[in-house]
Amino acid sequence: MSYDKVTQAEKLIIGTKQAVKTIRLNKAHEVFIAQDAEDRVTSPVIEEAARQGVPLTYVDSREELGKACGIQVAASVVVITD
Predict the structure, then answer these.
(1) Measured distance CA(40)–CA(25) in Å, rounded
(2) Are 15 and 77 in contact (CB under 8 A)?
(3) Is the Cβ–Cβ distance between 32 and 6 less than 8 Å?
(4) What pLDDT, in 10s, does the model give residues 9-39?
(5) Percent of the chain surpassing pLDDT 70
(6) How would you class 62 by CB atoms within 10 Å of its CB: exposed for 0-12, middle for 13-18, buried for 19 or more?
(7) What is the DSSP string of 4-67?
(8) 58-78: average pLDDT
(9) For the whole prediction, is pTM greater than 0.90?
(10) Which of 34, 40, 42, 71, by CA, is between 20 and 30 Å from 80?
């Protein structure tokens, strides 16, 4: 499952603003988007990833994505980086 990649990643960026910044700096390897997140939160990241050609992976749950990151709260957007 996609959550495994997040769990095993060495460096993660969590959150919309930091994700967009990381993608623009060409440091993103893959972007994970929770399908239950609000469009207004995820749209800027999806658009920037498409512009830069960064692969997108959709996962089912914000709660599960947060757990995979090792944080106590839900996560809508996560980027695996260098």
Answers:
(1) 22
(2) yes
(3) yes
(4) 999 999 999 999 999 999 999 999 999 999 9
(5) 99
(6) buried
(7) HHHHH-S-EEESHHHHHHHHHTT-EEEEEEETTS-HHHHHHHHHHHHHHT--EEEES-HHHHHH
(8) 96
(9) yes
(10) 40
